[in-house]
Amino acid sequence: MLEEDIDNIFVKYVKEYQDINGTYVHVYEKPPTALEFLRTSVHPNRPAVIKGGFEHWPARTKWTNDYLRSKMGETVVTVAGKCFLFLFFKKKTNGILFFYTATPNGYADAVTYDPITDKEYFTMPHEEQMTFNSFIDLIEGKAVSANANYISLQNGSLPIEYSAIEKDVNQDIGWCNEALGKQPDAVNFWFGDDKSATSLHKDPYENCYAVIRGQKTFILYPPTEYYCMHESLYQNAIYVPNETTRKLELSPLESSTPWIPVNPLYPDFTKYPKFMHACPITVTVKEGEMLYLPALWFHQVMQKGDEGVIAVNYWYDMEYTNSLFPTMGLFRRLITGSMEGNRELLVDEEDSD
Protein backbone atom coordinates (compact mmCIF):
# COMPACT_ATOMS: atom_id res chain seq x y z
CA MET A 1 0.00 0.00 0.00
CA LEU A 2 2.86 2.38 0.79
CA GLU A 3 4.33 2.06 -2.73
CA GLU A 4 0.87 2.58 -4.25
CA ASP A 5 0.46 5.72 -2.13
CA ILE A 6 3.84 7.02 -3.33
CA ASP A 7 2.85 6.34 -6.95
CA ASN A 8 -0.37 8.29 -6.52
CA ILE A 9 1.46 11.18 -4.86
CA PHE A 10 3.94 11.42 -7.76
CA VAL A 11 1.17 11.26 -10.37
CA LYS A 12 -0.60 14.15 -8.65
CA TYR A 13 2.68 16.06 -8.51
CA VAL A 14 3.27 15.52 -12.25
CA LYS A 15 -0.29 16.50 -13.15
CA GLU A 16 -0.24 19.61 -10.98
CA TYR A 17 2.79 20.99 -12.83
CA GLN A 18 1.20 20.11 -16.17
CA ASP A 19 -2.08 21.82 -15.22
CA ILE A 20 -0.24 25.00 -14.22
CA ASN A 21 2.20 25.25 -17.12
CA GLY A 22 0.72 23.23 -19.99
CA THR A 23 2.87 22.85 -23.10
CA TYR A 24 3.46 26.55 -23.66
CA VAL A 25 6.84 27.58 -25.08
CA HIS A 26 7.61 31.29 -25.11
CA VAL A 27 8.78 32.73 -28.43
CA TYR A 28 10.98 35.82 -28.43
CA GLU A 29 10.55 37.65 -31.73
CA LYS A 30 13.93 39.28 -31.12
CA PRO A 31 16.78 38.59 -28.67
CA PRO A 32 15.58 39.34 -25.13
CA THR A 33 17.23 41.59 -22.62
CA ALA A 34 19.00 39.79 -19.79
CA LEU A 35 16.27 40.80 -17.34
CA GLU A 36 13.47 39.66 -19.66
CA PHE A 37 15.20 36.33 -20.26
CA LEU A 38 15.81 35.82 -16.56
CA ARG A 39 12.21 36.55 -15.58
CA THR A 40 10.45 34.80 -18.46
CA SER A 41 12.59 31.69 -18.96
CA VAL A 42 15.41 31.08 -16.46
CA HIS A 43 13.61 31.57 -13.16
CA PRO A 44 10.51 29.60 -14.27
CA ASN A 45 12.85 26.94 -15.76
CA ARG A 46 10.91 26.90 -19.04
CA PRO A 47 12.15 26.46 -22.63
CA ALA A 48 11.93 29.25 -25.19
CA VAL A 49 12.59 29.91 -28.88
CA ILE A 50 14.59 33.01 -29.81
CA LYS A 51 14.27 34.46 -33.31
CA GLY A 52 16.78 36.75 -34.97
CA GLY A 53 19.43 36.04 -32.37
CA PHE A 54 22.37 35.40 -34.69
CA GLU A 55 21.58 36.81 -38.12
CA HIS A 56 24.81 38.79 -37.87
CA TRP A 57 26.97 35.66 -37.60
CA PRO A 58 29.08 35.07 -40.74
CA ALA A 59 28.21 31.37 -40.37
CA ARG A 60 24.62 32.09 -41.41
CA THR A 61 25.77 32.79 -44.98
CA LYS A 62 29.26 31.31 -45.15
CA TRP A 63 28.72 27.76 -43.92
CA THR A 64 28.11 26.04 -47.21
CA ASN A 65 29.69 22.63 -47.77
CA ASP A 66 32.22 24.14 -50.17
CA TYR A 67 33.27 26.71 -47.59
CA LEU A 68 33.58 24.09 -44.86
CA ARG A 69 35.67 21.91 -47.16
CA SER A 70 38.00 24.83 -47.81
CA LYS A 71 38.42 25.54 -44.10
CA MET A 72 38.22 22.07 -42.53
CA GLY A 73 38.95 19.52 -45.25
CA GLU A 74 42.31 18.30 -43.93
CA THR A 75 42.03 19.33 -40.30
CA VAL A 76 42.52 16.78 -37.51
CA VAL A 77 39.51 16.74 -35.18
CA THR A 78 38.11 14.33 -32.63
CA VAL A 79 34.38 13.70 -32.84
CA ALA A 80 32.36 12.14 -30.07
CA GLY A 81 28.70 12.29 -29.29
CA LYS A 82 25.37 10.59 -28.95
CA CYS A 83 23.12 8.46 -31.04
CA PHE A 84 24.91 7.97 -34.30
CA LEU A 85 24.79 5.41 -37.06
CA PHE A 86 27.54 3.16 -38.35
CA LEU A 87 29.00 3.96 -41.76
CA PHE A 88 30.58 1.77 -44.40
CA PHE A 89 32.89 3.48 -46.90
CA LYS A 90 33.80 2.33 -50.39
CA LYS A 91 36.76 4.59 -50.75
CA LYS A 92 39.62 5.89 -48.68
CA THR A 93 41.09 9.30 -49.15
CA ASN A 94 44.53 10.54 -48.38
CA GLY A 95 44.90 13.25 -45.82
CA ILE A 96 44.37 13.86 -42.17
CA LEU A 97 41.73 11.93 -40.27
CA PHE A 98 39.04 12.87 -37.80
CA PHE A 99 36.88 10.70 -35.56
CA TYR A 100 33.16 10.11 -35.83
CA THR A 101 30.94 7.90 -33.70
CA ALA A 102 28.98 4.94 -34.97
CA THR A 103 26.25 2.45 -34.10
CA PRO A 104 24.29 0.07 -36.34
CA ASN A 105 20.80 1.19 -35.29
CA GLY A 106 20.91 4.97 -35.08
CA TYR A 107 21.19 5.19 -31.31
CA ALA A 108 24.23 5.29 -29.06
CA ASP A 109 24.37 6.52 -25.52
CA ALA A 110 21.06 4.69 -25.42
CA VAL A 111 19.49 1.55 -24.02
CA THR A 112 19.94 -1.24 -26.58
CA TYR A 113 18.71 -4.83 -26.56
CA ASP A 114 21.29 -7.47 -27.46
CA PRO A 115 19.65 -10.68 -28.80
CA ILE A 116 22.86 -12.63 -28.28
CA THR A 117 22.86 -12.15 -24.51
CA ASP A 118 19.09 -11.48 -24.26
CA LYS A 119 19.88 -8.39 -22.21
CA GLU A 120 19.56 -4.61 -22.41
CA TYR A 121 22.66 -2.43 -22.13
CA PHE A 122 23.48 1.25 -21.97
CA THR A 123 25.38 1.39 -25.23
CA MET A 124 28.12 3.80 -26.24
CA PRO A 125 29.16 4.44 -29.84
CA HIS A 126 32.07 3.09 -31.77
CA GLU A 127 34.61 5.64 -32.99
CA GLU A 128 36.11 5.59 -36.47
CA GLN A 129 38.44 7.84 -38.44
CA MET A 130 37.95 9.61 -41.74
CA THR A 131 38.74 12.95 -43.33
CA PHE A 132 36.36 15.87 -43.08
CA ASN A 133 36.10 15.87 -46.87
CA SER A 134 34.97 12.24 -46.77
CA PHE A 135 32.31 13.18 -44.26
CA ILE A 136 30.99 15.89 -46.59
CA ASP A 137 30.99 13.32 -49.40
CA LEU A 138 28.63 11.21 -47.31
CA ILE A 139 26.36 14.13 -46.54
CA GLU A 140 26.19 14.95 -50.26
CA GLY A 141 25.66 11.32 -51.30
CA LYS A 142 29.01 11.10 -53.12
CA ALA A 143 30.11 8.18 -50.93
CA VAL A 144 28.22 5.09 -49.81
CA SER A 145 27.12 4.55 -46.21
CA ALA A 146 24.99 1.82 -44.71
CA ASN A 147 23.11 4.24 -42.50
CA ALA A 148 24.03 7.76 -41.43
CA ASN A 149 26.74 9.89 -39.87
CA TYR A 150 27.05 12.62 -37.27
CA ILE A 151 29.85 14.90 -36.08
CA SER A 152 29.71 15.93 -32.45
CA LEU A 153 32.01 16.51 -29.51
CA GLN A 154 30.44 17.75 -26.31
CA ASN A 155 33.49 19.16 -24.53
CA GLY A 156 33.99 22.47 -26.29
CA SER A 157 34.64 21.20 -29.80
CA LEU A 158 34.21 24.51 -31.62
CA PRO A 159 37.22 26.44 -30.24
CA ILE A 160 39.35 23.33 -29.76
CA GLU A 161 38.78 21.18 -32.83
CA TYR A 162 37.09 23.64 -35.21
CA SER A 163 39.17 26.74 -34.56
CA ALA A 164 39.35 27.37 -38.33
CA ILE A 165 35.67 28.35 -38.32
CA GLU A 166 35.05 29.45 -34.72
CA LYS A 167 35.21 33.16 -35.59
CA ASP A 168 32.18 32.69 -37.85
CA VAL A 169 29.99 32.61 -34.73
CA ASN A 170 29.96 34.54 -31.47
CA GLN A 171 32.03 33.09 -28.65
CA ASP A 172 29.10 33.51 -26.26
CA ILE A 173 25.50 34.74 -26.02
CA GLY A 174 25.64 38.19 -24.43
CA TRP A 175 22.15 38.41 -22.93
CA CYS A 176 22.47 34.87 -21.58
CA ASN A 177 25.89 35.64 -20.05
CA GLU A 178 24.41 38.64 -18.27
CA ALA A 179 21.32 36.81 -17.07
CA LEU A 180 23.24 33.82 -15.71
CA GLY A 181 26.28 35.77 -14.53
CA LYS A 182 28.74 33.47 -16.25
CA GLN A 183 30.45 32.53 -19.51
CA PRO A 184 29.68 29.33 -21.44
CA ASP A 185 31.38 26.23 -20.08
CA ALA A 186 31.51 24.72 -23.59
CA VAL A 187 30.65 25.66 -27.18
CA ASN A 188 29.98 22.66 -29.41
CA PHE A 189 29.73 22.05 -33.17
CA TRP A 190 27.15 19.59 -34.57
CA PHE A 191 26.84 18.35 -38.15
CA GLY A 192 24.67 15.44 -39.31
CA ASP A 193 21.59 14.44 -41.27
CA ASP A 194 18.07 13.16 -40.68
CA LYS A 195 19.21 9.62 -39.88
CA SER A 196 20.89 10.77 -36.68
CA ALA A 197 18.88 11.12 -33.48
CA THR A 198 19.48 11.30 -29.74
CA SER A 199 17.84 9.16 -27.10
CA LEU A 200 15.86 10.70 -24.27
CA HIS A 201 18.21 12.20 -21.67
CA LYS A 202 18.96 15.28 -19.59
CA ASP A 203 22.03 17.52 -19.14
CA PRO A 204 23.20 19.61 -16.16
CA TYR A 205 23.57 22.68 -18.37
CA GLU A 206 21.60 25.73 -19.40
CA ASN A 207 21.65 25.23 -23.16
CA CYS A 208 21.40 27.83 -25.94
CA TYR A 209 21.10 25.80 -29.14
CA ALA A 210 21.48 27.69 -32.44
CA VAL A 211 20.40 25.94 -35.65
CA ILE A 212 22.48 27.32 -38.52
CA ARG A 213 21.36 24.93 -41.29
CA GLY A 214 18.31 22.69 -41.50
CA GLN A 215 15.97 22.20 -38.56
CA LYS A 216 15.87 20.27 -35.28
CA THR A 217 12.83 18.89 -33.50
CA PHE A 218 13.06 18.55 -29.73
CA ILE A 219 10.66 16.41 -27.70
CA LEU A 220 10.84 17.89 -24.20
CA TYR A 221 9.72 16.87 -20.72
CA PRO A 222 10.24 18.95 -17.57
CA PRO A 223 12.28 17.64 -14.62
CA THR A 224 9.03 17.20 -12.67
CA GLU A 225 8.27 14.19 -14.92
CA TYR A 226 11.24 12.14 -13.73
CA TYR A 227 8.73 9.69 -12.23
CA CYS A 228 7.42 8.95 -15.73
CA MET A 229 10.81 8.23 -17.34
CA HIS A 230 11.41 4.69 -16.01
CA GLU A 231 15.10 5.48 -15.57
CA SER A 232 16.99 2.37 -14.53
CA LEU A 233 20.55 1.17 -14.05
CA TYR A 234 22.04 -0.63 -17.06
CA GLN A 235 25.30 -2.44 -17.60
CA ASN A 236 27.45 -0.50 -20.03
CA ALA A 237 28.46 -1.79 -23.44
CA ILE A 238 30.26 -0.38 -26.45
CA TYR A 239 29.98 -1.12 -30.15
CA VAL A 240 33.05 -2.77 -31.65
CA PRO A 241 33.54 -3.95 -35.25
CA ASN A 242 33.66 -7.68 -35.89
CA GLU A 243 37.17 -8.50 -37.11
CA THR A 244 35.81 -10.57 -40.00
CA THR A 245 32.59 -8.88 -41.10
CA ARG A 246 33.36 -5.35 -39.75
CA LYS A 247 29.75 -5.17 -38.60
CA LEU A 248 29.28 -3.58 -35.20
CA GLU A 249 28.62 -5.82 -32.23
CA LEU A 250 27.98 -5.07 -28.59
CA SER A 251 30.85 -5.61 -26.18
CA PRO A 252 29.74 -5.53 -22.52
CA LEU A 253 31.76 -3.55 -19.95
CA GLU A 254 32.03 -3.90 -16.18
CA SER A 255 30.53 -0.50 -15.33
CA SER A 256 26.90 0.67 -15.31
CA THR A 257 24.92 3.87 -16.03
CA PRO A 258 21.44 5.14 -15.10
CA TRP A 259 19.51 5.83 -18.31
CA ILE A 260 16.02 6.23 -19.75
CA PRO A 261 14.83 3.30 -21.94
CA VAL A 262 11.67 4.90 -23.36
CA ASN A 263 11.47 6.13 -26.94
CA PRO A 264 8.83 8.88 -26.90
CA LEU A 265 8.18 8.38 -30.61
CA TYR A 266 7.08 4.77 -30.01
CA PRO A 267 6.37 4.40 -26.28
CA ASP A 268 5.61 0.90 -25.00
CA PHE A 269 3.05 1.64 -22.29
CA THR A 270 2.81 -2.03 -21.37
CA LYS A 271 6.50 -2.15 -20.53
CA TYR A 272 6.70 1.47 -19.29
CA PRO A 273 3.24 2.30 -17.86
CA LYS A 274 4.34 5.41 -15.93
CA PHE A 275 5.26 7.10 -19.19
CA MET A 276 1.57 7.49 -20.05
CA HIS A 277 1.45 10.26 -17.43
CA ALA A 278 4.17 12.25 -19.25
CA CYS A 279 3.14 15.19 -21.42
CA PRO A 280 5.53 15.93 -24.32
CA ILE A 281 6.35 19.44 -25.46
CA THR A 282 7.42 19.29 -29.10
CA VAL A 283 9.43 22.21 -30.46
CA THR A 284 10.79 22.49 -34.00
CA VAL A 285 13.70 24.90 -34.16
CA LYS A 286 14.08 26.22 -37.69
CA GLU A 287 17.15 27.51 -39.46
CA GLY A 288 18.17 30.83 -37.93
CA GLU A 289 16.39 30.16 -34.62
CA MET A 290 17.75 29.33 -31.18
CA LEU A 291 16.31 27.12 -28.46
CA TYR A 292 16.83 27.84 -24.79
CA LEU A 293 16.73 24.42 -23.13
CA PRO A 294 16.81 24.71 -19.34
CA ALA A 295 19.03 22.49 -17.22
CA LEU A 296 17.80 18.96 -16.43
CA TRP A 297 14.96 19.01 -18.95
CA PHE A 298 14.59 15.64 -20.65
CA HIS A 299 14.91 15.82 -24.42
CA GLN A 300 15.08 13.65 -27.52
CA VAL A 301 16.23 15.30 -30.74
CA MET A 302 15.63 14.62 -34.43
CA GLN A 303 16.87 16.67 -37.38
CA LYS A 304 16.15 17.30 -41.03
CA GLY A 305 17.99 19.13 -43.81
CA ASP A 306 18.66 18.55 -47.50
CA GLU A 307 22.40 19.24 -47.31
CA GLY A 308 22.99 18.31 -43.70
CA VAL A 309 22.04 19.94 -40.43
CA ILE A 310 24.51 22.21 -38.64
CA ALA A 311 24.13 23.67 -35.18
CA VAL A 312 26.25 25.32 -32.51
CA ASN A 313 25.25 25.14 -28.87
CA TYR A 314 26.41 26.97 -25.78
CA TRP A 315 26.47 25.09 -22.50
CA TYR A 316 26.36 27.11 -19.30
CA ASP A 317 26.85 25.26 -16.02
CA MET A 318 23.58 24.99 -14.13
CA GLU A 319 23.28 26.72 -10.76
CA TYR A 320 23.95 23.87 -8.34
CA THR A 321 22.83 25.96 -5.36
CA ASN A 322 19.31 25.82 -6.81
CA SER A 323 17.03 23.21 -5.23
CA LEU A 324 16.48 21.60 -8.65
CA PHE A 325 19.74 19.63 -8.58
CA PRO A 326 19.32 17.90 -5.18
CA THR A 327 15.63 17.38 -5.95
CA MET A 328 16.57 15.40 -9.05
CA GLY A 329 18.96 13.38 -6.89
CA LEU A 330 16.12 12.71 -4.45
CA PHE A 331 13.89 11.47 -7.29
CA ARG A 332 16.62 9.16 -8.56
CA ARG A 333 17.32 7.66 -5.15
CA LEU A 334 13.68 7.27 -4.18
CA ILE A 335 12.17 6.10 -7.48
CA THR A 336 14.98 4.38 -9.37
CA GLY A 337 17.06 3.42 -6.34
CA SER A 338 14.55 2.40 -3.68
CA MET A 339 11.22 1.73 -5.41
CA GLU A 340 12.72 0.00 -8.47
CA GLY A 341 15.46 -1.87 -6.63
CA ASN A 342 18.63 -0.28 -7.99
CA ARG A 343 20.28 -0.25 -4.57
CA GLU A 344 23.61 0.93 -5.99
CA LEU A 345 22.09 4.37 -6.47
CA LEU A 346 21.44 4.69 -2.75
CA VAL A 347 25.16 4.66 -1.98
CA ASP A 348 27.02 7.94 -2.45
CA GLU A 349 30.42 7.70 -4.10
CA GLU A 350 32.15 9.04 -1.01
CA ASP A 351 30.46 6.37 1.12
CA SER A 352 31.48 3.48 -1.14
CA ASP A 353 35.25 3.68 -0.56
UniProtKB/TrEMBL annotation:
Gene3D superfamilies: Jelly Rolls
Domain JmjC stretches: 149-331
InterPro entries linked to this entry: Cupin_8, JmjC_dom, RmlC-like_jellyroll
SUPFAM superfamilies per the UniProt record, alphabetical: Clavaminate synthase-like (SSF51197)
Protein name: JmjC domain-containing protein
Organism: Thamnidium elegans
Lineage of the organism: Eukaryota, Fungi, Fungi incertae sedis, Mucoromycota, Mucoromycotina
